[in-house]
UniProtKB/TrEMBL annotation:
Enzyme class: hydrolase
Stated name of the protein: CRISPR-associated endoribonuclease Cas2
Gene Ontology terms for molecular function: hydrolase activity; metal ion binding; RNA endonuclease activity
GO biological process assignments: defense response to virus; maintenance of CRISPR repeat elements
Amino acid sequence: MLVLVCYDVNTETSAGRRRLRRVAKVCESTGQRVQKSVFECQVDVAQFETLERRLLAEINPDQDCLRLYRMPQTRGFEVLEHGSFKAVDFDGPLVL
Protein backbone atom coordinates (compact mmCIF):
# COMPACT_ATOMS: atom_id res chain seq x y z
CA MET A 1 0.00 0.00 0.00
CA LEU A 2 1.08 3.57 -0.53
CA VAL A 3 1.31 5.57 2.70
CA LEU A 4 1.70 9.31 2.92
CA VAL A 5 3.52 10.41 6.11
CA CYS A 6 3.21 14.06 7.16
CA TYR A 7 4.66 15.53 10.31
CA ASP A 8 5.13 18.81 12.09
CA VAL A 9 7.66 18.74 14.93
CA ASN A 10 8.04 21.65 17.32
CA THR A 11 11.65 22.83 16.86
CA GLU A 12 11.71 25.66 19.40
CA THR A 13 14.05 23.63 21.63
CA SER A 14 17.15 21.56 20.93
CA ALA A 15 15.19 18.45 21.97
CA GLY A 16 12.60 19.31 19.31
CA ARG A 17 15.28 19.71 16.65
CA ARG A 18 16.68 16.28 17.60
CA ARG A 19 13.17 14.76 17.36
CA LEU A 20 12.76 16.32 13.91
CA ARG A 21 16.00 14.72 12.68
CA ARG A 22 15.04 11.33 14.15
CA VAL A 23 11.56 11.42 12.59
CA ALA A 24 13.07 12.33 9.20
CA LYS A 25 15.59 9.45 9.45
CA VAL A 26 12.81 6.95 10.17
CA CYS A 27 10.88 8.21 7.14
CA GLU A 28 13.98 8.23 4.90
CA SER A 29 14.66 4.59 5.81
CA THR A 30 11.22 3.59 4.52
CA GLY A 31 10.19 5.96 1.75
CA GLN A 32 11.02 8.96 -0.37
CA ARG A 33 10.78 12.60 0.63
CA VAL A 34 8.35 14.51 -1.60
CA GLN A 35 8.30 17.71 0.47
CA LYS A 36 10.21 18.85 3.54
CA SER A 37 7.94 17.04 6.01
CA VAL A 38 6.06 14.71 3.67
CA PHE A 39 7.13 11.22 2.60
CA GLU A 40 5.65 8.57 0.31
CA CYS A 41 6.23 5.00 1.49
CA GLN A 42 5.36 1.79 -0.35
CA VAL A 43 4.80 -0.75 2.44
CA ASP A 44 2.86 -3.86 3.34
CA VAL A 45 0.71 -4.11 6.48
CA ALA A 46 3.55 -5.33 8.73
CA GLN A 47 5.91 -2.60 7.47
CA PHE A 48 3.18 0.00 8.03
CA GLU A 49 2.72 -1.09 11.64
CA THR A 50 6.49 -1.00 12.20
CA LEU A 51 6.75 2.46 10.62
CA GLU A 52 3.90 3.81 12.74
CA ARG A 53 5.38 2.33 15.94
CA ARG A 54 8.84 3.78 15.18
CA LEU A 55 7.42 7.24 14.44
CA LEU A 56 5.24 7.26 17.55
CA ALA A 57 8.32 6.43 19.61
CA GLU A 58 10.08 9.55 18.29
CA ILE A 59 7.43 12.28 18.52
CA ASN A 60 6.17 14.17 21.54
CA PRO A 61 2.36 14.00 21.19
CA ASP A 62 1.94 17.12 23.34
CA GLN A 63 4.04 19.27 20.97
CA ASP A 64 4.20 17.47 17.60
CA CYS A 65 1.77 16.30 14.94
CA LEU A 66 2.01 13.09 12.91
CA ARG A 67 -0.43 12.09 10.15
CA LEU A 68 -0.37 8.80 8.23
CA TYR A 69 -2.57 8.49 5.14
CA ARG A 70 -3.12 5.02 3.71
CA MET A 71 -3.86 5.57 0.04
CA PRO A 72 -6.36 3.20 -1.58
CA GLN A 73 -5.08 0.84 -4.26
CA THR A 74 -8.25 1.29 -6.28
CA ARG A 75 -8.62 2.11 -9.92
CA GLY A 76 -8.78 5.80 -10.62
CA PHE A 77 -6.33 6.80 -7.89
CA GLU A 78 -3.72 9.15 -9.24
CA VAL A 79 -1.13 11.66 -8.14
CA LEU A 80 -0.72 14.87 -10.11
CA GLU A 81 2.79 16.32 -9.96
CA HIS A 82 3.75 19.89 -10.77
CA GLY A 83 7.21 21.37 -10.48
CA SER A 84 10.72 19.97 -10.56
CA PHE A 85 10.34 16.91 -8.29
CA LYS A 86 9.92 13.56 -10.03
CA ALA A 87 8.90 10.66 -7.82
CA VAL A 88 10.40 7.19 -7.94
CA ASP A 89 8.14 4.63 -9.63
CA PHE A 90 7.88 1.94 -6.92
CA ASP A 91 6.35 -0.52 -9.40
CA GLY A 92 8.88 0.16 -12.18
CA PRO A 93 12.08 -1.80 -12.85
CA LEU A 94 14.95 -1.43 -10.40
CA VAL A 95 18.07 -0.20 -12.19
CA LEU A 96 21.37 -0.16 -10.33
